[in-house]
């Protein structure tokens, strides 16, 4: 009769470690500061009047929603972004804290911004609510959609 081969604890540990070495690498866990940095870079670029920098964090298939309208990335860049840059150059906005939530490689950011000042000579005083949805692809976060709504302050 043949004896059964026994493996010691060291052999079993080596086998288990070799399995984990063959597994595909797991993406890094979501980082709130990375997501906030992308959103801040978008708004910061608009404030500086840098349309190219603002669009650099926008996904190719992004959609923008505001005032009951839906705009593609191209439509936003051509029509709405210049108006946002003009507005931000004339009016002061005070953004509240950003609340970030994650689900896998998707993040959504909610914030309120209070605007006060004059735009083209008319008084401005309202609160804007923003919902920004981002996805992570190859380690980079990109904005997929932004929804803006507002109310009088």
How does this model look, in words?
The chain has 153 residues and is α+β, with helices and mostly antiparallel strands. It is 35% helix and 43% strand. It is globular.
Instruction: Determine Rg (CA atoms, Å).
Output: 24 Å
Identify low-pLDDT runs.
Answer: none
Shape: globular
In terms of structural class, how would the helical and strand content be classed? alpha+beta
Question: Termini distance?
Answer: 89 Å
Topology:
Layout: H1 9-22, H2 32-48, H3 51-55, E1 58-66, E2 69-72, H4 73-90, E3 91-95, E4 99-103, E5 106-119, E6 122-137, E7 140-152
Short description:
The protein has helices at 9-22, 32-48, 51-55, 73-90, and strands at residues 58-66, 69-72, 91-95, 99-103, 106-119, 122-137, 140-152. It has 153 residues and is of the alpha+beta class. Strands 1, 2, 3, 4, 5, 6 and 7 form a seven-stranded mixed sheet that branches.
């Amino acid at each position: 009769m043949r004896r059964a081969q026994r493996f010691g604890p060291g052999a079993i540990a080596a086998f288990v470690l070799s399995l984990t070495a063959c597994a595909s690498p797991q993406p890094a866990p979501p980082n709130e500061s990375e997501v906030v940095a992308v959103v801040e870079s978008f708004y910061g670029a608009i404030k500086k009047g840098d349309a190219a920098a603002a669009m650099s964090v926008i996904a190719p298939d992004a959609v923008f929603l505001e005032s009951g309208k839906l705009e593609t990335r191209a439509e936003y860049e051509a029509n709405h972004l210049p108006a946002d840059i003009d507005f931000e150059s004339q009016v002061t906005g005070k953004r509240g804290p950003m609340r970030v939530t994650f689900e896998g490689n998707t993040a959504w950011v909610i914030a309120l911004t209070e605007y006060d000042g004059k735009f083209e000579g008319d008084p401005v005083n309202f609160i804007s609510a923003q919902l920004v949805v981002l996805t992570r692809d190859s380690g980079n976060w990109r904005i997929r959609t932004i929804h803006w709504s507002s109310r009088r302050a």
